[in-house]
């Protein structure tokens, strides 16, 4: 059978952002995939030359809207480590709350798109309806639905009053109930399983060797989640990573679904840990950062890495960001060979690709 | 670490069961960079540093050891104009940039031709 090259993307109904794959196929079977990126590269790392290290928080939040909070947390923690800043406990816990809310709405956004990718429109609408409640919480507590922009170097700029905390807890109860109502559909429905089970398998060894991150790594049985490092407020919380072992598209979806429920638990734990008396939201920051630092945090899509070098000036010398989708592209190239052409959209979506993050 | 023992050092990391995290590059002079290779095992991160690497001289690619490093190496090729020998999938400076781009974004006053 002669080989044919079929372009997949950059514009495709299942892709919210542009990525292009050159698929080498024999008949209907994919033999090889070659990626082509560069459609949304903005050169954000260059902005360290033009924006000072405080302003760079806003730049980092715009690396990716959907996980903006955790980008800002990672950047802030890197600078705080370089400058030896002790972040108040209240701010650490509040960062966890908004981070986990971001993880929840990111995973639900993806679950909806995933359902839409294999034609399950009712599930897509149900999941996005649940997600709206989380965006409402963001808007009510931080003033924005997606880019909440609550981080500053040394802490946060917003607090939660007791009424807001009670309201968040009551909303979480509704979200949890609604999620549990659709749980068996997401995980056991015939349509879902037919399109995901056994599709795009990534073995434990491949996931490790190809540098996979996040649910893509944990869906292959690797117990690795940066929250196990107990950074920031996570050191105060009980946490055990969600792991699945099948390594297929279903396993990656199951990890994300279970992580939404886990995030509800983490937000509840964090609310209970907000200090009653101490109302400090941010430490005072004096001077400029100097030296080198390397920081890792867990974003919805996996491990996010910031490397920063500074020499005591307002502007940083270098900021390097490695996002989780950047790490998950090589594993994707290992998932696609020998799959059917019709399964490619679902497999590509199963890594939850964030191309704005990847290209920055 | 030097260019001569770079690949063997990286191979040692792989034999020890380390996962490749990423690479970073930082300018140390107008025409030289530090290249950092980041690995992890059991949540411990190890950094290898190739110090003061002249941009004009090619660096051995580690993509033969860790295939996933090819994306990071191609990115550095785009943004710093670095060259790598033995890169398993070479986008020739078009991973993020268009073919007609003739400047290197993260190195001041450095111009190159598209075929460089």
Topology, please?
The complex is a heterodimer of chains A (360) and B (116).
Chain A: E1 3-8, E2 20-26, E3 29-36, H1 56-61, H2 68-83, H3 89-117, H4 121-142, E4 151-152, E5 155-156, H5 162-188, H6 190-196, H7 204-209, H8 215-218, H9 249-273, E6 290-299, E7 302-311, E8 318-322, H10 324-335, H11 344-350, H12 355-359
Antiparallel strand pairs in A: 1-2, 2-3, 4-5, 6-7, 7-8
Helix pairs in contact in A: 2-3, 3-4, 3-9, 3-11, 4-5, 5-9
Chain B: H1 6-15, E1 19-29, E2 32-41, E3 44-54, E4 59-60, H2 69-80, E5 84-85
Structure characterization notes:
The complex is a heterodimer of chains A (360) and B (116). Chain A is an alpha+beta fold and 360 residues long. Helices cover 46% and strands 14% of the residues of chain A. Chain A has a single domain (41-276, 287-334), classed as Cytochrome-c3 Hydrogenase, chain B, CATH 1.10.645. In chain A, a hairpin with a 2-residue loop joins strand 6 and strand 7. The model of chain A has no long low-confidence stretch (mean pLDDT 91). With 116 residues, chain B is an alpha+beta fold. Chain B has helices at 6-15, 69-80, and strands at residues 19-29, 32-41, 44-54, 59-60, 84-85. In chain B, the strands form 2 sheets. Chain B has a 3-stranded antiparallel beta sheet, with helices on one face. In chain B, strands 4-5 form a two-stranded parallel ribbon. The radius of gyration of chain B is 14 Å and the shape is globular. The mean pLDDT of chain B is 85.
């Amino acid at each position: 059978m002669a080989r044919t090259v079929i372009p997949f993307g950059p514009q495709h109904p299942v892709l919210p952002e542009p990525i292009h794959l050159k698929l080498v196929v024999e008949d209907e079977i994919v033999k090889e995939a070659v990626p082509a990126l560069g459609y949304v590269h903005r050169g954000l790392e260059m902005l360290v030359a033009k924006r000072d290290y405080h302003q760079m928080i806003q730049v980092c939040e715009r690396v990716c809207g959907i996980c903006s909070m955790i980008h800002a947390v990672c950047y802030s923690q890197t600078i705080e480590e370089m400058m030896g800043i002790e972040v108040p406990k209240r701010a650490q816990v509040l960062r966890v709350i908004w981070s986990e809310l971001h993880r929840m709405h990111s995973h639900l956004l993806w679950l909806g798109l995933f359902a839409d990718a294999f034609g399950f429109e009712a599930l897509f609408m149900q999941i996005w309806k649940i997600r709206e409640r989380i965006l409402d919480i963001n808007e009510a507590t931080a003033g924005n639905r997606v880019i909440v922009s609550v981080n500053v170097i040394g802490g946060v700029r917003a607090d939660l009053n007791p009424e807001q905390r009670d309201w968040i807890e009551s909303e979480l109860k509704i979200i949890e109930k609604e999620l549990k109502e659709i749980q068996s559909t997401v995980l056991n429905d015939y349509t879902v399983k037919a399109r995901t089970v056994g599709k795009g398998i990534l073995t434990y060894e491949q996931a490790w060797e190809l540098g996979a991150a996040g649910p893509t790594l944990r869906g292959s049985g690797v117990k690795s989640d940066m929250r196990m490092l107990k950074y920031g407020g996570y050191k105060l919380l009980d946490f055990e990573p969600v792991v699945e072992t099948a390594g297929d598209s279903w396993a990656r979806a199951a990890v994300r679904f279970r992580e939404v429920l886990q995030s509800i638990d983490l937000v509840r734990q964090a609310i209970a840990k907000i200090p009653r008396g101490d109302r400090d939201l941010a430490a005072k920051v004096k001077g400029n950062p100097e030296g080198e630092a390397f920081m890792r945090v867990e974003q919805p899509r996996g491990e996010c890495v910031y490397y920063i070098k500074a020499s005591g000036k307002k502007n940083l010398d270098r900021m390097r960001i490695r996002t989780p989708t950047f790490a998950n592209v090589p594993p994707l190239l290992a998932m696609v060979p020998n799959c059917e052409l019709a399964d490619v959209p679902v497999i590509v979506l199963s890594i939850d690709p964030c191309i704005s993050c990847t290209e920055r | 670490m030097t260019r001569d023992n770079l690949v063997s050092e990286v191979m040692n990391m792989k034999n020890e069961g380390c996962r490749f995290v990423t690479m970073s590059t930082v300018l140390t002079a107008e025409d030289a960079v530090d290249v950092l290779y980041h690995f992890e095992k059991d949540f411990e991160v190890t950094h290898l540093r190739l110090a003061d690497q002249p941009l004009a001289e090619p660096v051995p690619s580690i993509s033969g050891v860790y295939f996933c490093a090819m994306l990071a190496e191609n990115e550095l090729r785009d943004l710093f104009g670095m060259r790598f020998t033995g890169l398993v999938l070479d986008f020739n400076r078009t991973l993020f940039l268009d073919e007609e781009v003739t400047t290197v974004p993260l190195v001041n006053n450095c111009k190159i031709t598209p075929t460089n």
